[in-house]
Design a protein that fits this description.
This protein has about 400 residues and is of the alpha+beta class. The chain has a domain of about 100 residues. It is built from 14 helices and 18 strands. It has an eight-stranded antiparallel β-sheet with strand order 3-2-1-18-17-16-15-14, sandwiched between helices. It has a two-stranded antiparallel sheet with strand order 4-10. Strand 11 and strand 12 form a beta hairpin. Helix 1 packs antiparallel against helix 14, helix 2 packs parallel to helix 6 and helix 2 packs across helix 7.
């Protein structure tokens, strides 16, 4: 999937217009904002654009190559959602199930209503966390690293941040999250959070397997995603892994960030369904091809088409946009006209979002500036990979949409 084998014009795409993607994005490398990147675009099952530029490791002088390994961070979340919904299709849980039915530590939750991190004021929650709240980020949980609320600070103080305490396993971390209050009543607002990690723990409890085993059996194995893994072992693959960078505070070239990046070099204590995977463009393109194929790829049926269609509807209460009920928004993309389904952001109104996309397109991105989207109407998938944290640094996702949709000419 990393090679263009047919004329893009055969599927209604202008190759000269696609070439403008590379011209535009090359500037990010040429001026030092990014070390390197990879882009992959497919339409109607054909790869119409595949390009790489710059370095996967500036210091070692290694270029980005088609099979470079990338930390995909939150692009793990859609895979976790798909795995969970494959269990749903087997009747293992109901979307309205109270989470405490399966994870008792989440019973009798409280909601933060005031105070500070040292002396919070809380009240009993009137609504329990339900499974669909985890899938839609409406559970009232949060992330410590976003630092947008008192609760974020409380997570840090309680050791409820895997980035700060990487020695803790998923079950223990879930107990720490459950001991803290919620940001709001479940189902009433949206906040990007550890909800998908809790969903991963639910998967482990329901199956009696580790998340690694379940992923392998239900998605990675059937789709032939042989390059997707939780860490990179010593050997030839280690050289394929791109280095991680952060913006230079003085405006110069991006700065290497091994403090975080080296976490990919050893088996993690906590298997993070919210952000733990490493993958390649070709591997993840098999996952998005399955999504574009309504749950099936090369004879492997991962989900039923109706389940996938249900997941990619807007599940926010009242059908509103993230701009209306989102808390602690931190990405550089638009939130007007964007809803959220079960594991995916969903384009509900491209006019409100002021982006030339299609209603019903679904997507997500990762902390290190990776991103993808699937457009069922145009039969299109697009992928971007880099290794700069945070992903909100530059408006690449919006720009890529502009460039890709401008190339469709049928």
């Amino acid at each position: 999937m990393t090679t263009v084998e047919h004329d893009p014009a055969e599927v209604g795409v202008d190759a000269q217009r696609l070439a403008k993607i590379d011209t535009h994005l090359a500037r990010y490398v040429d001026d030092g904002r990014l070390a390197g990147w990879q882009v992959l675009v497919t339409r109607r099952g054909r790869t119409v654009h595949a390009s790489t530029y710059g370095s996967r490791d500036l210091e070692a002088g290694l270029p980005v190559e088609p099979h470079t390994l990338w930390r995909i961070y939150s692009m793990t979340k859609p895979i976790t959602a798909v795995v969970a919904m494959s269990l749903y299709e087997e009747g293992r849980f109901s979307l309205n199930d109270e989470l405490a039915k399966h994870l008792p530590e989440f019973a009798d939750m409280r909601v933060l209503v005031g105070g500070n991190a040292e002396q919070p004021k809380t009240v009993p929650a009137t609504e329990p966390i339900r499974v669909w709240h985890l899938l839609s980020h409406t559970a009232g949980l949060t992330y410590a690293f976003t630092r947008s609320s008192v609760l974020d600070t409380m997570y840090g103080l309680a050791g409820a941040d895997p980035l700060v305490d990487p020695s803790v396993d998923l079950a223990t971390m879930c107990s720490r999250w459950a001991a803290l209050p919620l940001l709001f009543e479940p189902g009433t607002a949206w906040n990007y959070s550890v909800a998908t990690d809790v969903l991963g723990r639910l998967i482990e409890v329901l199956t009696g397997q580790t998340l690694e085993q379940v992923f392998a059996e239900r998605v990675l194995g059937p789709l032939g995603m042989t390059d997707t893994r939780w860490w990179v072992e010593e050997g030839p693959d280690r050289e394929r892994l791109a280095a991680l960078y952060v913006p230079n505070p003085d405006g110069g070239k991006a700065v290497r960030y091994d403090v975080l990046g080296d976490g990919a070099l050893s088996p993690p204590a906590l298997l993070s369904g919210g952000g733990g995977l490493i993958s390649t463009a070709a591997d993840y393109a098999r996952f998005t091809a399955m999504l574009a194929g309504r749950g099936q790829l090369d004879g492997a049926r991962i989900l039923g088409p109706r389940t996938l269609a249900y997941m990619t509807r807007n599940h926010l209460p009242g059908g509103v946009s993230l701009a209306s009920i989102g808390r602690g928004m931190f990405a550089e993309t638009a939130f007007d006209g964007i809803g959220f389904g079960l594991g995916f952001g969903v384009s509900a109104d491209p006019v409100a979002a002021k982006v030339t996309s299609t209603q019903g397109e679904f997507s997500w991105g990762g902390y290190a500036s990776t991103a993808f989207w699937v457009d069922p109407v145009e039969e299109l998938t697009a992928h971007f990979y880099a290794q700069l944290v945070p992903s909100s640094t530059y408006p690449i996702r919006t720009e890529l949409r502009q460039l890709v949709y401008a190339s469709l000419v049928d």
